[in-house]
Design brief:
15 strands; TATA-Binding Protein; BirA Bifunctional Protein, domain 2; 393 residues; globular; alpha+beta; 12 helices; seven-stranded mixed beta sheet; 2 domains
Length: 393
């Protein structure tokens, strides 16, 4: 009887390059490393002011490919030139730290179930945003959690963020294959076929096909909760970076003046909200983690135009996370879908997004889950005054 071939052992390898100019570039490189065929490997990344180094385990014949991808990632970050981080956010009152996540149950990687009272706090966060949406005249929309896969191509999400896509499959529409799948009882059987759908990676993209070819009588103002999903790779899932999550958005589609006024209103609102909550956070210019050959130029364009700002919060352990974003789309979606504003021009759009699970993580890290510790704004259901800006009609 022939012996089974023995598996080649892994050996330790070191790849190193010159240091990046600042922490933002170092962070961007770290985010790319797991995609360099290292997602399931044992590896360590050292990116500081003295050297950029990756130490990893690989079998014979694998190291060349891994290091080719590491070089691509390294050069991509150098081309993108991420903006240097602003001054650190204030640490806040750490005496408010409390026991956290006691009412959260993990179903699987990046999948969490929230029991009371965490679920109640998330609902209170959502209702706070809904009150703001109503004050600016936004109406509630209900949307599915699936989108046609072709929509992701159309809005260029698939080419910009392929690392986050989660595509749906179904069992082939064939009796023999259905029987074979039922006998196997496994989701990785060959009978699976592309269903033509994907889990929605963002909330507002679902709205624009609905408006295709329309001429608006006035600004469309709406709000919705998207049940979204993004694949985060095989790396450990932090509580605030989940595979499945909820995103509450407020969206305005209209004239350029209306979209820009709403974005200005959003930035002013986020600033006032942080002051009211008295928790550590800062508003910063940001870029998205674009992939592909055009990634560097897209990130540079986004940064130079100042079209994306994030509310970067600091939890009680000193970790930062983006809990909200204010985005100015310009004519992007209006042009893609042939949407016209009330003046007959290509419509502009803007959105204000809140990651509800991220907000929950941030608040519970400082305040705990019990209502008695919540900020007054959430505990009493008070409505935060919405800044009034011209051209909001």
């Amino acid at each position: 009887m022939a012996e089974a071939p023995t598996e080649k052992p892994s050996t330790r390898h070191t790849w190193s390059r010159d240091p990046f100019p600042h922490a933002a570039a170092q962070s961007a490189f770290r985010a790319l490393v797991p995609y360099c065929r290292l997602g399931e490997s044992n590896f360590e990344v050292s990116a500081d002011d003295t050297m950029t180094r990756v130490v990893y385990d690989a079998r014979a014949g694998e190291a060349d490919e891994i290091e080719r991808l590491l070089q691509i990632a390294y050069e991509r970050v150098l081309r993108e030139k991420p903006a240097a981080d602003p001054a650190p956010a204030p640490s806040g009152d750490r005496s408010r730290r409390a026991a956290r996540r006691e009412s959260t149950w993990t179903l699987g990687p990046g999948l969490q179930v929230f029991e009371p009272p965490a679920a109640a706090l998330m609902a209170a966060i959502d209702q706070m945003i809904v009150r703001v949406a109503r004050e600016i005249g936004a109406t509630e929309y209900a949307t599915p959690h699936l989108v046609p896969a072709e929509l992701l191509d159309r809005v260029k999400y698939a080419s910009s963020f392929p690392q986050h896509l989660l595509l749906c499959h179904s069992v082939a529409y064939d009796l023999d294959e259905l029987d074979a799948f039922a006998r196997g009882g496994r989701s990785d059987r060959g009978q699976l076929r592309n269903a033509g759908f994907a889990l929605a990676p963002a909330a507002c993209m679902i709205l624009y096909p609905m408006l295709e070819g329309r001429s608006l009588d006035g600004a469309l103002r709406c709000t919705l909760v998207g049940h979204c999903a993004r694949f985060e790779g095989p790396r450990p899932h932090a509580p605030e970076r989940l595979t499945a999550f909820r995103m509450r958005e407020i969206v305005v589609v209209g004239t350029r003046a209306q979209a820009e006024a709403f974005r200005a209103q959003s930035l002013e609102f986020l600033t006032g909200l942080v002051d009211a909550l008295k928790l550590p956070a800062r508003l910063v210019a940001a870029t998205d983690p674009f992939f592909g050959r055009a990634g560097a130029s897209l990130a540079t364009l986004q940064r130079n135009m100042g079209v994306k700002h994030e509310l970067e919060a600091t939890d009680a352990d000193g970790n930062t996370l983006a809990v909200s974003s204010a985005n100015l789309h310009g004519e992007r979606f209006g042009s893609m879908f042939g949407i016209r504003d009330e003046e007959g021009n290509v419509a502009h759009s803007a959105c204000l997004a809140f990651g509800l699970e991220r907000w929950l993580h941030w608040l519970t890290s400082h305040c705990g889950e019990e209502p008695a510790g919540w900020p007054e704004l959430l505990r009493t259901g008070l409505s935060w005054p919405v800044p009034q800006t011209e051209a909001t009609g």
